[in-house]
């Protein structure tokens, strides 16, 4: 009888420990979702894959993967307007829950980091709820400039308080991977990484092997490489006409790098004011390179046949645009960098008005 009980217990242990034929599993229990299509982006160790799910009931889903070398999964809802990030823990199942109408309060449970982040978020619930209400008010009161100013100021106050709470958590938990996540969530700034460097220095040295710690170190290094006043990193790529392009291939004193993407509504050359800029400033003084994530160089050439401007364009053929985006630490599109005659970076902006004003000032001084 004892042997039989021992056998049954052993069988039960085997079923519970070995029955998980997945490495990671994510469930969704989200209410008020209208779109039945959900995208899940798995990432880890240079690997990225996208799963597309069609839910019988919007917001209810389950996805598994057997790839053991993953770190995170980002789940996108409502035509990619809302998302939640899951930090993956081997053989653990995670659950995303909440109301899509309150996207900042979506909860992820399952796994140490997810549970700790959820507790941190719950402690900030009142602030997050007010932030969501103010965001909605920004849309409904868009014609009231005074109201917009008040809302913007209040949102800035809330975000500052949330950042201060994150700093306190980091100081109280220097040995937790969750602290690294909070540094990423609250202090990414491509123009100033002093806060990132300061907070990373507070953490337990054992966290240096955590994947996100390494990414933040690399982020800081890239940001310093392309900070205002830094010497612009050189490159060598081929444009859509097959010509090699580098910084040295521009004889002009000033160089403008404009990063765009075909799916970005604000990225058209007219919206960036590049057409006007190229016509306004002589090509002997200002060289313009358009870097686009279009992958088909031939298609781009055919689209420009009737254009009166002789564009110098690099596409993402052979990953060229991606390399330049990484080299210049571009985090948003559209994005422009103005480089001076000494190869120093003078301006980084996504604002066409700021770009036009800077160019006007630069050429007025000459």
Number of separate strands: 15
How many DSSP helices?
11
- Main beta sheet, described? 5 strands, mixed
- Quote the distance from N terminus to C terminus: 97 Å
Brief digest:
The protein is of the alpha+beta class and 366 residues long.
What this model shows, in words?
The chain has 366 residues and is an alpha+beta fold. The protein is built from eleven helices and 15 strands. The protein has helices at residues 2-18, 112-123, 125-140, 145-172, 177-187, 194-200, 211-225, 274-280, 297-303, 320-327, 352-365; strands spanning 24-31, 37-44, 47-54, 60-65, 72-77, 82-87, 93-99, 107-109, 237-238, 244-245, 254-260, 286-292, 313-314, 335-339, 345-349. The strands form four sheets. Strands 13-12-11-14-15 form a five-stranded mixed beta sheet, sandwiched between helices. Helix 6 runs antiparallel to helix 7. It is globular. Mean pLDDT is 88; it is low at 5-18.
């Amino acid at each position: 009888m004892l042997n039989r009980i021992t056998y049954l217990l052993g069988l039960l242990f085997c079923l519970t420990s070995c029955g998980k034929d997945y490495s990671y599993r994510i469930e969704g229990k989200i209410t008020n979702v209208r779109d039945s299509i959900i995208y899940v982006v798995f990432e880890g160790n240079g690997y990225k894959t996208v799963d597309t799910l069609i839910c019988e009931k919007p917001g209810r889903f389950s996805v598994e993967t057997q790839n053991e070398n993953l770190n995170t999964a980002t789940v996108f809802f409502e035509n990619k307007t809302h998302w939640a990030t899951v930090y993956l823990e081997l053989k653990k199942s995670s659950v995303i829950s909440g109301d899509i109408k309150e996207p900042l309060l979506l909860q992820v449970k399952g796994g140490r980091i997810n549970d700790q982040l959820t507790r941190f978020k719950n402690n900030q619930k009142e602030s997050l709820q007010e932030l969501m209400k103010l965001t909605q008010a920004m849309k409904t009161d868009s014609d009231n400039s005074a109201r917009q100013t008040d809302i913007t100021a209040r949102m800035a106050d809330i975000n500052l308080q949330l950042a201060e709470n994150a700093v306190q958590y980091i100081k109280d938990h220097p040995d937790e991977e969750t602290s690294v996540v909070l540094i990423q969530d609250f202090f990414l700034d491509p123009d100033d990484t002093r806060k990132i460097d300061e907070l990373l220095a507070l953490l337990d040295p054992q966290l240096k092997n955590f994947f996100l710690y390494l990414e933040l170190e690399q982020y800081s290094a890239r940001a310093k490489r392309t900070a205002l006043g830094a010497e612009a990193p050189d490159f060598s790529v081929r444009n859509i006409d097959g010509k090699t392009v580098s910084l040295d291939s521009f004889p002009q004193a000033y160089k403008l790098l404009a990063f765009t993407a075909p799916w970005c509504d604000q990225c058209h050359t007219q919206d960036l004011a590049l057409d006007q800029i190229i016509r306004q400033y002589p090509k002997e003084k200002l060289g313009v390179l358009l870097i686009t994530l279009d992958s088909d160089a031939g298609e781009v050439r055919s689209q420009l046949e009737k254009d009166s401007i002789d564009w110098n364009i690099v596409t993402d053929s052979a990953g060229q645009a991606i390399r330049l985006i990484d080299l210049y630490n571009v985090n948003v599109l559209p994005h422009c960098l103005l480089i001076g005659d000494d190869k120093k970076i003078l301006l980084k902006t996504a604002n066409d008005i700021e770009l036009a004003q800077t160019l006007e000032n630069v050429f007025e001084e000459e």
